[in-house]
Amino acid sequence: MPTVLVVEDERDIRDLLRRYLERDGHAVLTAASGAEGLRYLEEAAADLLLLDLGLPDVDGTELLRFAATTGVPTIALTARSSVEDRIHGLELGADDYVTKPFSPREVVLRVDAVLARRRAGLVSTSSAPSYGSGRLRIDSTRHEATWDDAVLDLTPTEWGILVALASTPGRVYSRAELVNRVRGYEFAGYERTIDSHVKNLRHKLGADGADVVETVLGAGYRLGLRRD
Hints:
The chain is of the alpha/beta class. The protein has 2 domains: 3-121, Response regulator (Rossmann fold), CATH 3.40.50.2300; 130-223, Winged helix-like DNA-binding domain superfamily/Winged helix DNA-binding domain (Arc Repressor Mutant, subunit A, Orthogonal Bundle). The protein contains 9 helices and 11 strands. It has helices at 11-23, 34-42, 60-70, 83-91, 104-121, 156-167, 175-183, 191-205, 209-212, and strands at 3-7, 27-31, 48-52, 74-78, 96-99, 130-131, 136-139, 144-147, 150-151, 213-216, 220-223. A 5-stranded parallel sheet has the order 2-1-3-4-5, with helices on both faces. It has a 4-stranded antiparallel sheet with strand order 6-7-8-9, with helices on one face. Helix 1 packs across helix 5, helix 2 runs parallel beside helix 3 and helix 6 packs across helix 7 (175-183). It is elongated and about 55 Å long. It starts with a strand and ends in a 5-residue tail after the last strand.
């Protein structure tokens, strides 16, 4: 049973989300403050974070960044509905974004979708596939990628892009396709952020980053390594 951590300072919303999530078969933890939510995250007590970005004590983006570094998928809740605000939240590592007021049933469906994508990404094979004569390894079982035997510290979005490209080395993926592979739905505005995520991914791959994740002008990106 997956555990969902709801960090929301409004009690009525917390209780409403708890009822719907528990009815859907989830274990639920609730926190009324950012500090309490951070403690749960540090204890690795949750499989998914449902986070109100407008917390009174801690900037919600701090929890969003922390969750991204620990690999906990996050759905951001906010009263801000502009495209730029949504893009900013997704750039910081949110896996999905819901604006208030919202349907609690829609939130539950989005939670199920994010958890399903995460489970699909963790489907194991008998051994971790490698690329480029072993330089790149992607271990879905451990949700871990290594480059020259060093573990890459990837955000959920960077991980999703790398896994998508590695699924068919040499195939060109458009930005829209990468959004769908990583997010599971179409959001045209988010295509503009793929380039920044690719830039960060290349930086983490070091001097050869641009050769590992190749740009195909006017088309998108592809993995520049062959599968071993």
